[in-house]
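[Automated response] Your request has been received and processed.

Submitted sequence:
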Amino acid sequence: MNTNQEPTNAVAAADVPQPAPLLTPEVVVEQLRSMRGQIGEVTPLTPEQRRQLRNHGRTSNPVLQASINVIGALDIVEQAVGQPADDVRQLYEEANRWTAAEDELRTMLKGIAGANLVRRQRVALVAGRAVNISTQLARDPAHAVLVPHVEEIKRLKSFKRRKKAAPAPSAPQSPVPVTPTSHVTAASGDSKG
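Generated structure:
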């Protein structure tokens, strides 16, 4: 009886699907680039071009369907448009099918960006703990090897603060305060004269 159960367990174990290996970021980039080469039309657009195309493409589905139907209603319309109604219908269906790919890629991008943000936050927490612990330990002469590391971190942090502080003085020089002051001056100059 035991011999019958062992092969059954082996067969059952073989039927269980194994999880796919996790992809590295480099492999994901390589596969995305490969997929991009296999997709017929990938057209990068400027924000202005994208806005213009969206504005021109805002036509309801019933209007689009009726417009496609009118192409097939008379040969002269098809000739003037330069494409048969079936080709335009196919283009319309293809555009609708690609929205599924758009949505999936957008969802994937948001997921990857979110996961990477969480990774960076974890790294920042660990790095912060390391600095705090190292700063405390560096006070003890037995851990003097940490002193140069802690000093370098402090130097880099102070440099970062100085870089952020530099743009602050230029911020008060905005055109908004200048306009009311010159207006008041002109008004007071008119009242004197």
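Summary generated for your ticket: The helical segments are 2-15, 25-38, 47-56, 61-73, 75-81, 85-138, 147-165, 175-192. Residues 183 and 189 are 10 Å apart (CA to CA).
If you did not submit this request, please reply to this message.
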